[in-house]
């Protein structure tokens, strides 16, 4: 499957990608983001191809936030850097922020973090696309799940996790999600469903 996306003014992707370890969620996110020329990534594994993780955030974040750098593919593996990545993406506008391992960031039932609120609720005005990746769908706060325009689910085996996303996707795929083979997903995009497999090789 070929991934082609365009970002228009006032339009953005708001994507949640979930699934058990090794099922393909991070592969999907890397395929999605590989051609983006304005990309910020939080990834504890620093594993996104073509994203610079080696330079400390303080060396470049201000230039991105104030528009001094037109194209960037930068990231951090340190959770403490996530708020500045979020604020910089909002300031820069017309860009994509990927947040891997959301279970590290959010705790079930807690209030949405201050850094996340502008992106979740008014980020479309800055055309900031969001991709939130998690093994546990239930760890992603309801305020985020309720706003997502797209949910990509690989296999999940905990009923609470499946319920957390089928509340938004619809109950028709509840049983299917439990039995998805590796690298196969159900993709709910603004009410429309598709099903496909992905290639684990990312060039």
- Low-pLDDT segments: 1-9
At CATH level 3, the topology is Rossmann fold
Would you count the extended β strands for me? Answer: 8
Spatial order of strands in the largest sheet: 3-2-4-5-1-6-7-8
Radius of gyration from the alpha-carbon trace, in angstroms: 16 Å
Give the end-to-end Cα distance, rounded to a whole number of Å: 14 Å
What's the rounded overall pLDDT mean?
Answer: 90
- Strand proportion: 15-25%
Percent helix range: 25-40%
Structural class: alpha/beta
Description:
The chain has 203 residues and is α/β, with parallel strands linked by helices. It has a single domain (14-197), classed as P-loop containing nucleotide triphosphate hydrolases (Rossmann fold), CATH 3.40.50. It is built from eight helices and eight strands, in the order βαβαβαβααβαβααββ. The protein has helices at residues 25-33, 61-65, 82-92, 102-105, 116-122, 142-145, 159-169, 174-178; strands at residues 14-18, 38-42, 72-76, 95-99, 128-134, 150-153, 184-189, 192-197. Residues 1-9 have low confidence and may be disordered.
């Amino acid at each position: 499957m070929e991934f082609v996306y365009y970002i228009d003014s006032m339009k953005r992707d708001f994507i949640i990608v979930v699934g058990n370890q090794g099922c393909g969620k991070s592969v999907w996110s890397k395929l999605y983001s590989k051609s983006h020329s304005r990309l910020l990534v939080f990834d504890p594994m620093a594993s996104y191809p073509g994203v610079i993780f080696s330079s400390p955030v303080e060396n470049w974040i201000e230039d991105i936030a104030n528009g001094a750098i037109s194209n960037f593919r930068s990231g951090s593996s340190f959770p403490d850097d996530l708020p500045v990545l979020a604020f910089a993406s909002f300031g820069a506008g017309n860009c994509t922020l990927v947040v891997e391992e959301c279970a590290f960031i959010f705790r079930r039932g807690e209030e949405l973090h201050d850094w996340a609120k502008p992106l979740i609720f008014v980020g479309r005005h800055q055309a900031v696309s969001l991709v939130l990746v998690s093994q546990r769908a239930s760890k992603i706060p309801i305020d985020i799940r309720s706003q997502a325009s797209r949910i990509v689910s690989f296999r999940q085996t905990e009923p609470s996790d499946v319920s957390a996303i089928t509340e938004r996707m619809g109950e028709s795929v509840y049983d299917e999600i439990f039995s998805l083979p590796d690298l196969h997903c159900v993709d709910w995009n603004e009410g429309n469903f598709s099903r496909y497999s992905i290639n684990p090789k990312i060039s």
